[in-house]
Amino acid sequence: MRLRDTEKVQLVKQKAIELIVKDGLEGFSMNKLAKACQISVATLYIYYKDRDDLIVKITIEELESMTQGIMKDFSPEMSFEQGLHKQWENRYAFAKNHPQMNLFFDQLRSSSYQSTLLSDSISAFKMTMGQFMTNAIERGEIEEMPLDVYWSIAFAPLYNLIRLDQEGKSLDGSPFKVTDAVFWKTFDLVVKALKK
Amino acid sequence: MRLRDTEKVQLVKQKAIELIVKDGLEGFSMNKLAKACQISVATLYIYYKDRDDLIVKITIEELESMTQGIMKDFSPEMSFEQGLHKQWENRYAFAKNHPQMNLFFDQLRSSSYQSTLLSDSISAFKMTMGQFMTNAIERGEIEEMPLDVYWSIAFAPLYNLIRLDQEGKSLDGSPFKVTDAVFWKTFDLVVKALKK
DNA sequence: TTGTTAAATGAATGAATATTTATTTATTTT
DNA sequence: AAAATAAATAAATATTCATTCATTTAACAA
Predict the structure, then answer these.
(1) CB-CB contact of A108 with A114 (8 Å)
(2) Which residues bind DNA (chains A, B) (predicted)?
(3) Which residues of B touch A158 (CB under 8 A)?
(4) Residue B3 Cβ < 7 Å to strand C
(5) Is A140 left (phi over 0), alpha (psi -120 to 50) or beta?
(6) Whole-angstrom distance, CA of residue A29 vs CA of residue A129
């Protein structure tokens, strides 16, 4: 029995993400991926059943790594301001350490894979986040509101900042990097919106 | 001289948007588009120079229609709360009347067309929006903050709500439609965040 | 009616795509 | 060292892609 070359397997995963971020799913092909890894296309079909399988499996792995990163040291029992701060911290850190991840997920969110992937697998994660909000409301820390309203205010501004930062330019076209100051200033305003 | 069939031209535009929203740019092809319109592929090459030209021209037209819709009855001289309310109203109305548009632009934002399209053409529009914020700060209606922070708080929650609405399901998986009440509740919280 | 012009077409083109095949290579087990 | 097994490959296949070509069709001008 010959062993599967784990370095090669890792390389495939990494290059796939790179290529999809660079060219979009539209410009991503099995042949290009093989060439980028300097391996035979056929090898890809040993690792994965087909193109779809490759994309789905890689995405699920990355999703899991991301939820893990986001949940680090977080508990739905934390106080509202502590908990939300931790969430912002974790998401900020993850975006910095995995600069391609948000772009990668953007690709999948705006593709035919969305329904398969992004809606299903994260349900446990979402439950926890829902619980956190419910607790905060019950404690009277924030106003009562639907989960979707909460989520839209609590996180949409954060991801918009991260996106602008990674695109590297501000809305007026000038160069742009999110500083810690700007980031936490935004956080303060979000807390102001939600707190009772 | 035979006249170009304007109904056919319109059909091509509409079906192109439909297909891109459904399958992504990745799954969009000239042959599929022709088949969907029940015309010859060659006809597409009478209307448009090539695939790129088709995508770019259609996008520019839709962008113009959208900025027009968003700017209706708005002026950067309006008071902060009135002006932002009008912006939310216009964007909400546009999203309702053109349910595919946000999804369509999402496709392009996460593609190689982004730099060509979404950064260039809207600059006048962005200038106006920047002016509106600057005025609000000068009048002391809102706190001082960078444009990107303002934008992230003022509009990212809105678009997140619209997206959830159009996906038709809430974060916990239950069916979801944005009601006027939910929409304006979110608006109130956003105003609360920004106002001095 | 006839000629002119561009719209519209069906059927090709070659290039790129995903996937499969037959074969070779490396590693473990006997 | 030989047999067994799966990894890895190079080369082929069938399909889909964007684009073009030769031809027909419709509308107007003479």
Answers:
(1) yes
(2) 29-48
(3) 152
(4) yes
(5) left
(6) 36
